[in-house]
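4.2 Preliminary Data

To establish feasibility before requesting continued support, the project team ran the inverse folding procedure on a target of 259 residues. The structure was first converted into the token representation described in Section 3, and no sequence information of any kind was made available to the design step. The complete token record follows.
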């Protein structure tokens, strides 16, 4: 898609609004959770600043819609921080894998290799620089933190699917509607995989360990076609950051309606 075509496209905002009630990934004790967004007022047209209003914020790197950088996970700890991700990896074509029916039946559904190969069989090989987005309908829960977290049950990837994506030369990253790219139900699919280092968090382990990126808490994926849209992923370039809260826009060409 050329720049003139992009300018003539319909722009779809895929970002979850970020506020103090936006949930962050729950982690059990004794592990430490990241911070949700909070504001500390500095001035508000008062004696501390009569002509202006502003606040300090506390914000976890992994709050709301955000990009996971390789150094977020042990497999990519020596890899890129979020400020080091090349811009050309943050702009590219979008492929949308629709798993809404599967997730309606099973909220903890894990994307399989068969799903991914089936998508390529129907739509053609994933193009270079593609962000693959998994549409699940999960964003309909986004304004209700309890339903969104769903007692820690949300969609994710099988171990084999994570390895498939990590090995695919044309995939830049994976985008999901849930709070993380991995569902907590992910794990070994065979007895001989139980010692796999990526068995817990396979998407994190294999994608981030392969210089690919994760993008979470997306919305409006139902407005995108399976192919043909482009995306701009714009995380805060936090120096040394393991992630960056992001604004994400898709450009849908004329006639490229969502499915």
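Position-by-position output of the design step:
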């Amino acid at each position: 898609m050329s720049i003139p075509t992009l300018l003539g496209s319909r722009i779809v905002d895929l970002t979850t609004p970020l506020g103090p009630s936006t949930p962050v990934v729950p982690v059990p004790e004794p592990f430490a959770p990241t911070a949700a967004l909070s504001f500390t007022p500095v001035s508000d047209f008062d004696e501390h600043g009569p002509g202006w209003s502003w606040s300090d914020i506390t914000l976890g790197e992994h709050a709301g819609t955000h990009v996971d950088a390789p150094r977020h996970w042990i497999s990519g700890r020596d890899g890129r921080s979020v400020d080091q991700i090349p811009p050309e990896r943050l702009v590219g074509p979008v492929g949308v894998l629709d798993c809404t029916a599967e997730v309606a039946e099973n909220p903890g559904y894990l994307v399989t290799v068969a799903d991914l190969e089936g998508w390529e069989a129907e739509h053609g090989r994933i193009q270079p620089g593609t962000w693959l987005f998994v549409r699940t309908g999960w964003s309909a829960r986004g304004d209700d933190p309890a339903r969104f977290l769903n007692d820690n049950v949300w969609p994710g990837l099988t171990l084999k699917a994570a390895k498939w994506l990590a090995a695919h030369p044309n995939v830049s990253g994976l985008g999901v509607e849930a709070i993380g790219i991995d569902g907590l139900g992910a794990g070994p699919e065979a007895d001989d995989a139980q010692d796999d280092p990526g068995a817990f968090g396979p998407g994190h382990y294999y994608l981030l360990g392969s210089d690919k990126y994760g993008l979470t808490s997306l919305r409006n994926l139902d407005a995108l076609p399976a192919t043909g849209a482009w995306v701009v992923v714009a995380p805060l370039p936090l120096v040394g950051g393991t992630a960056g809260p992001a604004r994400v826009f898709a450009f849908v060409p004329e006639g490229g309606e969502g499915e």
